[in-house]
Amino acid sequence: MGLPKLNRLKHWRDFQRVYKQGTCHHGRYLVLRKWSTDQDSFGLTPPQIGIVVGKKVSKKATLRNRIKRQIRAILQDFLPSLKPGQKLIIGVKPKARECEYEHFLRELEQLLRKAEVLNGH
RNA sequence: AGAGUCAGCGAGAGAGUUGCGGAGUUGCUCUAAUCGGCAACUUUGAGGAAAGUCCGGACUCCCGAAAGACCGAACUUGCUGGAUAACGUCCAGUGCGCGUGAGCGUGAGGAAAGUGCCACAGAAAAAUACCGCCAGGGGUGCAAUGCUCCUUGGUAAGGGUGCAAAGGUGCGGUAAGAGCGCACCAGCAGCAUCGAGAGGUGCUGGCUCGGUAAACCCCAAGUGGGAGCAAGGUCGAAGGGAGAAGGGUUGGUCUGUUUACCCCUCCCGUUUUUAAGAACCGCUUGAGGUGUCUGGUAACAGGCAUCCCAGAUAGAUAACUCUCCUCAGAACAGAAUCCGGCUUAUGUCUGACUCUCUCU
RNA sequence: GGACGCAUAGCUCAGUUGGUUAGAGUACCACGUUGACAUCGUGGGGGUCACUGGUUCGAGUCCAGUUGCGUCCA
Question: Which one of A28, A38, A67, A84 has the fewest beta carbons within 10 angstroms of its own beta carbon?
Answer without folding.
Answer: A38
